[in-house]
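G., the chain you wanted modeled:
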Amino acid sequence: MARDKVTVIGAGNVGATTAQRIAEAGLADVVLIDIVEGLPQGKGLDLAEAAPVVAHDANVVGTNDYADTAGSDVIVVTSGLARQPGMSRDDLLTKNAGIVRSVVESAAAVSPDAIIVVVTNPLDAMCHVAMDASGFPRERVIGMAGVLDSARFRTFIARELGVSVEDTHAFVLGGHGDTMVPLSRYSTVAGVPITELLPADRVRALEERTANGGAEIVGLLKTGSAFYAPAAGAFEMVEAILLDRKRVLPCAVRLQGEFGVDGLFVGVPVVLGRGGMERVFEIELTDDERAAFQRSADAVRELVEVLAR
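Predicted structure as tokens:
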């Protein structure tokens, strides 16, 4: 039986690490594509040469030609400029919109049945660009942000309470960035809400650190942005899709009235399977949470309006 095929667009840190995780899990054959000549070929060959040591038979190739990506089951879009210190997500907007539009048009043309996982920032706005460029239905264009944000939240919760990350579960809604909405009353350790385990000021501190998680890493690295955790988040989504796992994961999807929002990509819990986004997992929000979610959606709407100008 032929293995599934995943194309990763962008051979930078996020793209190459995503390709590594997918190949080393034996999940799919991987095509790493980039505009820079030699870069994806070199990284692809390097990853292929690691296969005997880590014991997988997935095929990894690098290319500059979209013909090599034809027939992909999943396309992961990581290409674009990384955020530099002092650069807002909005600064990235117009530059990365042009890049994402171009690569998605090229990839979708040769893989018309693929599911697109968008990783490029500003995430929610780039999903709009990818959906428009591909012409794909909403089920097949999904943004990776909530998985990363909830992983950060889970890390901070586990460290705060001195427990295994495996026993922490976190819920994050809304746009990716400063307006995200960590839902602490749905975030648990072994099923117990963290709001019952920590004082309110500590919960707030963890929520704020989560919302600023990307900026914290940019500030430390100075010349780049996070890539290990974003790649892990992209891998988790690709795995849920290819193995039809029906995982409930927070992802950016185009809402059609769910949570009171219409026509915008915003992060919500969804069921991910072979069909892509199989349904939105709608939950009841308190008035405060709904207001915060609405503010987050409004921030996404502003970015989309800037793109439309």
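The chain has a mean pLDDT of 95.

Shout if anything looks off.
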